[in-house]
Design goal:
The chain is α/β, with parallel strands linked by helices and 323 residues long. The chain is built from 12 helices and 13 strands. Strand 3, helix 4 and strand 4 form a beta-alpha-beta unit. The longest helix is centred in the N-terminal third of the chain and has 26 residues. 48% of the residues are buried. InterPro entries: ABC_transpt-TYRBP-like, Peripla_BP_I.
């Protein structure tokens, strides 16, 4: 009799333990880890857009563990963060910017990796095919529409002949954009004058060398340059050289105009990809997308300080005016 009672107690305890285990598993939140090479408004907006989309799809604070880490502009730190995140075993890891995405792809072949704000995922060797990326990787490209950007600068300066471009020659995104700029600029009779700046601390000196050499400055979506954008703006004011950008967030920081992506929208588009993976799709089966949606911002105050007028044709298309 005692043996039967003991067995009954053991079975009851086992069932209770199993129920607790199942409850704990059911209660475990979805874990989405995000990381970026550096903090600046565009990349931060991507991160925020991802989280907003997740929450709109039912992943509330109670059901979602969402983390973010910045490499502070250091590729070696990006690699360390990637290894750490892989060890944490999240459900999905998002690499915002090319260096962070590359570090993640190198660190895991098992955990789904979604990249965002990557200009050229093919050159960065994140995927070999847009339509069928395969493996554990997919994401969004923010390939810059450089022909439109050059056309915008030409609207401001119809006789433009030389355009200065500060960029980090060690960042694949930037190198790809400069190569495209040269191709498109040649068709328009514009010469691209490069101003290499490997680190954010180099940006001021590199840009100062453009004074007297160019009629305008264009800042690509280069994380190093955007981090130190205020240095470029100062040179533009001092040298009366209008500064343009491929990042709309730069206009509020001093650029005269920018035709670019709304990076919060890019984050939302990235978040939609993450949701598909969380719901069971394999990352490698989801085609890589080129982000959509462009905004035109102008800064009237900076236009005056840099000695250029904003054409009416531009003002008519402007989606945001910064005073």
């Amino acid at each position: 009799m005692k043996t039967a009672m003991n067995l009954k107690k053991l079975l009851t305890a086992a069932v209770a333990a199993t129920t607790l285990t199942l409850s704990a598993a059911q209660a475990a939140p979805v874990y989405v880890a995000t990381t970026a090479i550096v903090e600046h408004p565009a990349l931060d907006a991507v991160r925020d857009g991802i989280k907003q989309t997740l929450m709109e799809n039912g992943y509330t604070d109670q059901e979602l563990k969402f983390t973010y880490e910045s490499a502070q502009g250091n590729p070696a730190v990006a690699a360390q963060i990637a290894r750490k995140l892989v060890g944490d075993a999240p459900d999905v890891i998002v690499g915002i910017s090319t260096p962070s995405a590359q570090s993640l792809v190198s660190a895991t072949r098992d955990i789904p990796v979604v990249f965002s704000a990557v200009t050229d995922p093919l050159s960065a060797k994140l995927v070999t095919n847009y339509e069928a990326p395969g493996a554990n990787v997919t994401g969004l490209s923010d390939m810059t529409p450089v022909a439109q950007h050059l056309g915008l600068v030409r609207e401001f300066l119809p006789n433009l002949k030389k355009l200065g471009v500060p960029y980090n020659p060690g960042e694949p995104n930037a190198v790809a954009i400069v190569a495209l700029l040269k191709q498109e600029a040649a068709k328009m009779g514009i010469e691209i004058i490069e101003a290499p700046a490997p680190k954010s601390s180099d940006v001021m000196m590199a840009t100062q060398k453009l004074i007297g050499e160019v009629e305008a400055i264009y800042c690509p979506t280069d994380n190093t340059i955007l981090t130190a954008l205020e240095s470029v703006v100062k040179v533009g004011i001092d040298g009366k050289i209008p500064v343009f950008s491929g990042d709309t967030g730069s206009v509020e920081r001093g650029a005269v105009a920018a035709l670019g992506f709304n990076y919060h929208d890019i984050g939302r588009q990235t978040g939609a990809v993450v949701v598909r993976i969380l719901k069971g799709e394999k990352a490698g089966d989801i085609p890589v997308r080129v982000a959509v949606g462009s905004d035109l911002y102008v800064n009237t105050g900076m236009a005056k300080r840099m000695g250029v007028e904003i054409p009416q044709s531009v003002l008519k298309r402007t989606t945001k005016v910064v005073q």
